[in-house]
Design brief:
5-stranded mixed sheet, globular, alpha+beta, 12 strands, 17 helices, 49% helix, Cytochrome p450, single chain
Length: 449
């Protein structure tokens, strides 16, 4: 869409304001402490501001107001490219990842992936999530202090490996676990190196890509072996489901969708593996920390766990993700000039609806700093204000699975234990996520009866 002269007003003057520091300085400030720097820049420059980042990233316009976020999410996806906006993740996820493609390629990939995350599929995964959660909690002890982030990472990794791959063989799981963990666990500043190919054979980046090659070999072996099984239609894991899509869709126009290639499968599976593992673990960690800090809300959550009230447990999880955003922003690369926040933003700029800023706005959430899960049950939350899964046609396909998984895990924990903590946990950046710097330790007290 071309901006017509009549669409412009006197307010559309150049780019938004923003800090004027050197690009690489801004990049490091953002990568290492965006939970601090982005709110400060917002306070200094307003609801729409620009960061002039290094050339491979380019200019990024941050957006905080819900009406501007709505415009971006509701915009024509051909003009707001999410795939290009996420290009920094390409060395990790792969060029075929649903997070990194746009236009017809994205429509096709999403169409093929969605059946693995519809309502029927989620119900089929629930028993497995319950079983794995029960085994984990059974290893905990009364009076023990657990390192919550470590335990939640281990638990959600186990779930995602079995739900996505259907792998139950202990030897194969032992091979996958450390390689997936190393793939996820990188310092946020390493993202700069991912955008600079010349660093791929140096230091931490070299070690990272060596581990990635080892994980890829395991994944391709799993894909090859799964293609040969005779009971594929009877299996419920995501890999088995994806191997069946596109083979025979029964389309009326005589054209079946092309099945996913091994390379496409690898990239989609790694995306699901990484996006569906650490983010959920971090959300659970923050939620358990908040419940430990608010005994009155914890009592409500325990009553919900006992009665099977998943709606309240889900609200606890949603509020944890609101108060402690796991991902700080989403990104859309503009393919045409757009008016955003009263500014004429040129094509080629990345527009970044800020999850952190949206979640912290008093205009969006009354007493925004207060952990209050009931706001999600009382009709207080307006569209385009709570956005941890993005929005529009690019909303995360795993959102339903994440909320189901988190609610099941909370119920399993709270059925057996109450939790307490000594004080608030500070935030730190790890890779692209925000986690508790102290990993949010909590003490367990076994419930009686």
């Amino acid at each position: 869409m071309t901006i017509a002269p009549q669409d412009l007003t006197q307010e559309h003057r150049g780019l938004p304001p923003g800090p004027r520091r050197p690009r690489w300085v801004l990049a490091m400030q953002f990568l290492r402490g965006r939970h601090i720097s982005v709110p400060r820049w917002h306070e200094a420059y307003g609801d729409t501001f620009i960061l002039r980042m290094p050339p491979r990233i380019g200019n990024v316009v941050f957006v905080a107001a819900s009406e501007d976020i709505k415009k971006i999410f509701a915009g024509d996806p051909a003009l707001f490219h999410a795939g290009e906006g996420n290009v920094v993740l390409k060395p990790i996820m792969g060029e075929h990842s649903v997070l990194l493609i746009d236009d017809d390629l994205h429509v096709r990939a999403r169409k093929l992936l969605m059946p693995a995350f519809n309502g029927a599929s989620l119900r089929s995964y629930r028993d497995l999530v319950e079983s794995i959660s029960r085994r984990e909690v059974a290893t905990w002890h009364d009076g023990e202090t657990i390192v919550t982030l470590d335990r939640m990472n281990a638990l959600t990794l186990e779930i995602i490996l079995q739900v996505v791959f259907g792998v139950t063989d202990s030897e194969r799981l032992d091979q996958m676990r450390p390689r997936v963990t190393k793939t996820v666990n990188f310092a946020s500043w390493m993202l700069i190196g991912f955008a600079a190919p010349r660093l791929a054979n140096k230091g931490p980046w070299k070690r990272y890509f060596e581990n990635k090659a080892e994980l890829d070999a395991l994944l391709y072996r799993e894909i090859a072996e799964r293609r040969t099984v005779t009971d594929l239609a009877d299996r419920n894991d995501v890999l088995s489901r994806l191997l069946q899509v596109g083979v025979s869709t029964g389309s009326t126009d005589g054209r079946d969708d092309e099945p996913l290639t091994d390379a496409e499968l690898r990239d989609q599976l790694v995306t699901l593996l990484l996006a569906g593992h650490e983010t959920t673990a971090s959300a659970l960690t923050w939620t358990l920390h908040e419940l430990a800090m608010h005994p009155d809300i914890q009592r409500e959550a325990i009553a919900a766990a006992d009665s099977g009230d998943d709606a309240f447990l889900e609200a606890c999880l949603k509020e944890g993700m609101r108060v402690h955003p796991i991902i700080d922003q989403v990104a859309r690369k503009l393919k045409s000039d757009q008016i955003i926040g009263g500014y004429l933003v040129p094509a080629g700029t990345t527009a970044a609806p800020s999850i952190r800023l949206s979640h912290a706005r008093e205009e969006n959430f009354d007493e925004a700093r207060t952990y209050r899960p009931r706001r999600f049950l009382d009709g207080e939350v307006e569209p385009h204000t709570w956005i941890p899964f993005g929005g529009g046609v690019r909303r995360c396909i795993g959102a339903g699975f994440s909320l189901m998984e988190g609610s099941v895990i909370l119920r399993e924990i709270l059925t057996h234990y109450t939790v307490s903590a000594d004080g608030p946990s500070p935030t730190k950046q790890r890779n692209i996520t925000s986690v508790p710097a102290d990993k949010a330790p909590i003490r367990l007290s076994r419930r009686l009866g």
